[in-house]
């Protein structure tokens, strides 16, 4: 549940910053309040605010200049409702996907070598819950995210886990109504099963082949959405 709360704070803060830009009618190049001022304005911690700033900077909405401040980069990047334009979000997801292929792909490879019997059982339970939710046509986004976190944990590499956790706000964009559709990646469900089968059998090649198919499917869905 802590991860869900983190997503909500990140989204709320980035939305409030966009609302501030609109309300103050700021233009490109105009300066935003400092980090210290915004933590007071929005009543959030520095870590939550910085995560929101990283997200908005990646979306080309703001620009953080070290030693100078935070500036509006492009007021046309988001709609006045605060929602990022579909084309911008599509390109953003594709950029994250490139990073995800590299980092999570390494996690899958390591998990196939290091996964324990206990972790295999935990993932089997996770996939069973995933199946039940999918068959009931319910939201599977959080159980999907939980599945991938199990794989990352099974890699048994604390540095890799920390790196992925450090970009969790970006990573979780795939599970938080991407392009306005919570079920956008439902077609990847079979690859969860086959990838896990490869991992559980300690068959690195089979696991990676299925992981690549999953990433290809996600990429195609993003491009065609």
Automatic annotation (TrEMBL):
<protein>
    <submittedName>
        <fullName>FadR family transcriptional regulator</fullName>
    </submittedName>
</protein>
<dbReference type="GO" id="GO:0003700">
    <property type="term" value="F:DNA-binding transcription factor activity"/>
</dbReference>
<feature type="domain" description="HTH gntR-type">
    <location>
        <begin position="7"/>
        <end position="75"/>
    </location>
</feature>
<keyword id="KW-0805">Transcription regulation</keyword>
<dbReference type="Pfam" id="PF07729">
    <property type="entry name" value="FCD"/>
</dbReference>
<keyword id="KW-0804">Transcription</keyword>
<dbReference type="InterPro" id="IPR000524">
    <property type="entry name" value="Tscrpt_reg_HTH_GntR"/>
</dbReference>
<dbReference type="InterPro" id="IPR036390">
    <property type="entry name" value="WH_DNA-bd_sf"/>
</dbReference>
<dbReference type="InterPro" id="IPR011711">
    <property type="entry name" value="GntR_C"/>
</dbReference>
<dbReference type="InterPro" id="IPR036388">
    <property type="entry name" value="WH-like_DNA-bd_sf"/>
</dbReference>
<dbReference type="GO" id="GO:0003677">
    <property type="term" value="F:DNA binding"/>
</dbReference>
<dbReference type="InterPro" id="IPR008920">
    <property type="entry name" value="TF_FadR/GntR_C"/>
</dbReference>
<keyword id="KW-0238">DNA-binding</keyword>
<feature type="coiled-coil region">
    <location>
        <begin position="116"/>
        <end position="143"/>
    </location>
</feature>
<keyword id="KW-0175">Coiled coil</keyword>
<dbReference type="Pfam" id="PF00392">
    <property type="entry name" value="GntR"/>
</dbReference>
């Amino acid at each position: 549940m802590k991860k869900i709360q983190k997503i909500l704070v990140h989204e709320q803060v980035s939305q409030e910053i966009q609302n501030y830009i609109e309300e103050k009618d700021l233009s490109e190049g105009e300066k935003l309040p400092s980090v210290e001022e915004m933590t007071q304005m929005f009543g959030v911690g520095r870590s939550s605010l910085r995560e929101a700033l990283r997200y908005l900077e990646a979306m080309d909405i703001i620009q953080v200049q070290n030693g100078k401040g935070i500036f509006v980069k492009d007021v046309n990047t988001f709609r006045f409702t605060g929602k990022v334009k579909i084309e911008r979000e599509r390109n953003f997801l594709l950029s994250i996907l490139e990073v995800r292929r590299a980092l999570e792909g390494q996690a899958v490879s390591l998990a196939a070598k290091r996964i324990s019997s206990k972790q295999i059982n935990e993932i089997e339970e996770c996939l069973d819950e995933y199946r039940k939710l999918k068959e009931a046509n319910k939201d599977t986004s959080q159980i999907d995210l939980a599945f991938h976190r199990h794989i990352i944990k099974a890699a048994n590499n604390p540095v890799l886990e920390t790196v992925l956790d450090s970009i969790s706000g970006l990573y979780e964009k795939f599970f938080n109504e991407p392009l306005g559709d919570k079920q956008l990646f439902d077609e990847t469900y079979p690859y969860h099963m086959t990838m896990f089968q490869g991992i559980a059998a300690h068959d690195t090649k089979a696991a990676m082949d299925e992981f690549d198919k999953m990433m290809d499917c996600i990429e195609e869905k993003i491009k065609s959405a």
